């Protein structure tokens, strides 16, 4: 493509960007409302930016942008008696910039132009979502996650320090962010599932936040609403699958070598959870209205407790627990050997199996132990955590809840241990 053809192509792209954004603004116009610019103004403005960039470079483009901004200010001054908004004016200045960008970076300019047009056209959807769907607490939680990822993480040192040289702030906070993202995804899934899909899918989504808390809430629900037994059992069983998925994700973030060593136990435990939960889930989803997950108010049912999407105190507590468990596990391992570290991980797993597993995986990443040596401590933590869930199901559930849920928990744990203990057959020649 020769130089003149390339210039014409860039000008045509700038014209297309201006027409696209201008068409959206023109359609938005109301006969009763005065608007600063329509489709022709946007098209000409985009061409103006492209010509300025092509003819005089950045200096001329900056002059054109300032001139457009002055014209916008003059239009505001002339129409100061009524509020005409800022969206069109900002879009007009953006169109000048995109016109200039189409000369130097045409692909970026085209993509950005489409994004701008989509944002302008999505006004009703965005406003409705923010004002009617998203709560103020959810907005704060989203900002918290963004700050943790984009503000805190980049300033943390990516090196080990402290006793035994196992604390890496950057890696530890990365794992905390992963846990926060998983919790947020589970929260969103719970919001999307809602009552129409029942307790089964809600339990699966809540399991990404905490399988222990999910089983506790499902067990309590069987006391307040016995008719929801099938849905509660399905949700509790599916939360075990969520635990296997969550464990795989956090181990991948902490140490890929540890994930590889734990691959067979996690796969076996997850598969056992799927096979056991499948009939209960199908039964719950096919339940008649009398056994649906949303009974009339007179049945006295209490809704499943839905945690916050992101909790600052929870994230800080998880980070502190992770650091403490890492230090304790490393100290125990170096002073008393691997067997003592297994006992420490098992004890920590009663409270939080994720932090126990992550601490062991980070020790692998720091070179303190080999990947294969991490399997036993992690399985020990999973075992004690499973025991805690069994106790909750037995003590809080009623009407056969424990008899339906506990076998699935034991089956998943047994499958994980079997995958670790049984020898893997050698490949046939």
TrEMBL record:
Pfam families: DUF4010, MgtC. InterPro entries: DUF4010, MgtC_SapB_SrpB_YhiD_N. It comes from the Bacteria. The keyword Thylakoid does not apply. Residues 177-397 form the DUF4010 domain. The chain crosses the membrane at residues 6-23, 35-52, 58-77, 84-101, 107-126, 138-158, 170-190, 197-215, 227-252, 259-278, 309-328, 340-362, 374-396, 408-428. Residues 12-120 form the MgtC/SapB/SrpB/YhiD N-terminal domain. Keywords: Membrane, Transmembrane, Transmembrane helix. This is MgtC/SapB family protein. It comes from Neoroseomonas eburnea.
């Amino acid at each position: 493509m020769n130089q003149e053809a390339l210039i014409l192509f860039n000008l045509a792209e700038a014209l297309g960007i201006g027409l696209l954004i201008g068409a959206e603004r023109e359609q938005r116009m109301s006969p009763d409302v005065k608007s600063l610019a329509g489709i022709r103004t946007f098209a000409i403005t985009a061409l103006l930016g492209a010509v300025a960039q092509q003819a005089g470079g950045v200096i001329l483009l900056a002059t054109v942008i300032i001139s457009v901004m002055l014209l916008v200010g003059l239009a505001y001054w002339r129409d100061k008696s009524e509020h005409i908004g800022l969206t069109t004016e900002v879009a007009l200045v953006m169109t000048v910039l995109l016109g200039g960008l189409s000369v130097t970076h045409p692909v970026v300019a085209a993509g950005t132009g489409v994004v701008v047009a989509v944002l302008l056209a999505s006004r009703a959807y965005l406003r409705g979502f923010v004002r009617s769907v998203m709560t103020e607490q959810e907005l704060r939680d989203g900002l918290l996650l963004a700050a943790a990822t984009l503000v805190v993480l980049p300033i943390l040192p990516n090196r080990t320090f402290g006793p035994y040289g196992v604390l890496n702030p950057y890696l530890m906070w990365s794992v905390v962010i992963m846990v926060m993202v998983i919790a947020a995804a589970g929260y969103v899934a719970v919001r999307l599932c809602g009552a129409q899909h029942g307790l089964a899918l809600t339990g699966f989504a809540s399991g990404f936040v905490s399988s222990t808390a999910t089983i506790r809430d499902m067990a309590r629900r069987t006391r307040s609403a016995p008719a929801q037994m099938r849905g509660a059992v399905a949700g509790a069983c599916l939360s075990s699958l969520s635990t296997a998925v969550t464990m795989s994700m956090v181990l991948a973030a902490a140490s890929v070598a540890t994930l590889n060593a734990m691959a067979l136990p996690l796969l076996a435990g997850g598969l056992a959870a799927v096979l056991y939960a499948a009939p209960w889930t199908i039964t719950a989803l096919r339940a008649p209205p009398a056994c649906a997950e949303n009974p009339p108010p007179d049945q006295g049912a209490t809704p499943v407790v839905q945690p916050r999407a992101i909790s600052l105190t929870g994230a800080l507590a998880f980070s502190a627990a992770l650091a403490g468990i890492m230090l304790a596990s490393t100290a125990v391992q170096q002073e008393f050997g691997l067997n003592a570290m297994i006992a420490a991980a098992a004890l920590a797993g009663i409270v939080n199996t994720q932090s126990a597993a992550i601490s062991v995986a980070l020790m692998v990443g720091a070179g303190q132990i080999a990947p294969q040596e991490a399997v036993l401590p992690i399985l020990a933590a999973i075992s004690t955590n499973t025991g805690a869930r069994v106790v909750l199901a037995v003590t809080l559930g009623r009407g056969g809840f424990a008899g339906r849920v506990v076998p699935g928990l034991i089956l998943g744990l047994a499958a994980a241990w079997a995958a670790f203990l049984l020898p893997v057959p050698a490949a046939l020649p």
